[in-house]
Design a protein that fits this description.
Layout lengths: L2 E6 L5 H8 L5 E4 L14 H11 L9 H14 L5 E7 L18 H8 L4 E5 L3 H14 L19 H22 L5 E5 H4 E2 L2 E2 L1 H11 L26 H8 L16
Parallel strand pairs: 1-3, 1-4, 2-3, 4-5
Antiparallel strand pairs: 6-7
Helix pairs in contact: 5-6, 6-9
Length: about 260
């Protein structure tokens, strides 16, 4: 085994966890392989595809998705000396290997390929969808998605449209539920909850054991993430119109999440 995948929604701790796993001597962490910003980064899918199209333009056709997938994995393996490559994939990027006629609601072709090849999967979930939604809005506002430098973090109070916020939170919850169902049939999947990934400033022992067993690697020597948590404060201090949002969420399942501080990065 030389390929594993970490799959999640945005703002669920993938970068923080990836920064720990990537320090392991046997694992190369590939950050968001389908991101357009990685188009010129070795290991990125579009970096591979741009080069491949020069000699094999038909590789991009939907009917060649399985062959393209295998060639991409070969490419990733050739970009590192480490025996395992962990590919970070967001839910919204799982469509890239769909067939030409892919029905709405069907499981993405990318997951079919993972299941058929028995590729190990780390699925990250975040129960506190309110804080996840706020984290998304903050990143979109500040344009700072991850950082290793505390001085880059700008303290910003968000003015939120409560109705739009609720609609977005409901959609994210539905996405997470659907992806969990899609992953049920995959043979090598572990599911990690955001709040349990870290214990203080180190990867938790329970999380470590699940990953070690899944990937067949030794325990971690470096246990602390390099990524800094950007919103550790209570949401009352982050959302300018907190009372308005509280009023809209009060009769929903999201109401208690306003006051819960999930502890991970």
């Amino acid at each position: 085994m030389s390929i594993a995948v970490m799959i999640a929604l945005q703002r669920t701790g993938t970068h923080a966890l990836g920064s720990v796993i990537g320090q392991h001597r046997d694992v190369a962490y590939r950050d968001e392989i389908f991101s357009p910003s990685r188009a010129k980064t070795p290991g990125g899918y579009f970096c591979f595809l741009a080069e491949k199209l020069k000699t094999d333009p038909e590789i991009v056709l939907p009917d060649n998705s399985s062959r393209r997938f295998d060639q991409y994995l070969d490419y990733v393996e050739g970009e590192t000396d480490k025996p395992i490559s962990l590919l970070d994939v967001k839910y919204s990027s799982t469509h890239h290997f769909n067939t030409a006629w892919h029905p709405l609601g069907r499981r993405p072709g990318f997951l079919d390929l993972l299941e058929f090849r028995k590729i190990p999967i780390i699925h990250l979930k975040r129960r506190n969808i309110v804080r996840m939604t706020v984290s998304n809005l903050m990143a979109e506002t500040t344009r700072l998605y991850t950082t290793e430098n505390a001085h880059e973090i700008r303290k910003t109070r968000l003015q939120i449209n409560p109705e739009r916020f609720l609609a977005r939170a409901r959609f994210l919850r539905a996405e997470m539920t659907l992806m969990s169902r899609f992953l049920d049939s995959c043979p090598n999947v572990i599911t990690l909850e955001y709040a349990d990934i870290f214990d203080g400033n180190e990867i938790s022992r329970a999380t470590e054991k699940k990953i070690v067993d899944l990937l067949g690697i030794s325990n971690f020597e470096a246990r602390s993430p390099t990524i800094i948590k950007q919103i550790p404060e209570p949401l009352e201090d982050v959302i300018a119109n907190f009372d308005e949002l509280k009023a809209v969420l009060q009769s929903t399942i999201f109401a208690p999440m306003l006051f819960e501080n999930d502890a991970s990065r």
